[in-house]
Amino acid sequence: MSSAIIVVDVQNDFCEGGALAVAGGAAVAGRITELLDERGDAYAVVVATQDWHRPPPDTNAGHFALDEEPDYVTTWPVHCVQETAGAAYHPALRLPGDTVHVVKGDGRQDYSGFEGTALADSGPTALAELLRARGVTQVDVVGLATDHCVRATALDARGAGFDVRVLTDLTAAVAAPTTVAALTDLARAGVALDRS
Ligand SMILES: [Zn+2]
Q1: What is the distance in A from the centroid of ligand 1 to the CA of 38?
Q2: Residues with Cβ < 8 Å from 159, sequence gap 6 or more?
Q3: pLDDT digit string (tens) for 134-177?
Q4: End-to-end C-alpha distance for the chain, whole angstroms
Q5: Catalytic positions
Q6: Which of 19, 64, 83, 114 could bond to 13 as cystine, CB 3.0-4.6 Å?
Q7: What is the mean predicted confidence (pLDDT) over 23-49?
């Protein structure tokens, strides 16, 4: 039985000073690095996802609010545009050299890492297939933001048949009400809410 950790969207635009900053994002980046330094060897696979959108005027299927105020529920300010500093991993996040990188949201609204493309040595693949091919049965999910992309990634991992934990102290959220709802959804789906 092998485990993987999925580090969700720990990118500059989601941390303090970014286009769509989550309070506590930079601290989460540092704590994830500590976990990987101390216990990273326990994971057969380390995965990191990046929100990876097309630049305006592409709205990425309505994900970017360009001519209106974003509602911060389904529409958002421009963020994580491909090849920009905002889309880069936060500098406090240090990933092992053999990390599997997943990009998502290329012209689309993707919230879950399982909707993205895993950039494996053997070529682009779906994340669930890659994890299964490496014998992974259990997945820990950490990163940003608890109430959106962490939620969606953990629910999809569960739906794909993995045993899933969200390590809540290694996540940070956009807003309190949506976080309460997200944690309820996760628990109902059989995702364990744990601490690192
Ligand atoms: Zn996005």
Answers
A1: 30
A2: 189
A3: 999 999 999 999 999 999 999 999 999 999 999 999 999 999 99
A4: 20
A5: 9, 104, 149
A6: 19
A7: 97
What whole-number distance in Å separates Cα of residue 33 and Cα of residue 191? Answer: 23
Q: Is pTM beyond 0.70 here? A: yes
Q: What is the CATH number of the domain that holds 80?
A: 3.40.50.850
- In the DSSP assignment, the letter for residue 54 is P
Q: Ligand 1: distance of its center to the CA of 42 in Å?
A: 30
User: How much distance in Å is there from the Cα of 36 to the middle of ligand 1?
Assistant: 25
Overall domain count for the chain: 1
Give the pLDDT mean for 118-124: 88
Where do we find the tokens 């635009």? 13
The pLDDT, as a whole number, for residue 121 is 82
The residue whose two tokens read 């421009």 is 78
E strand or H helix that includes residue 101: strand 100-104
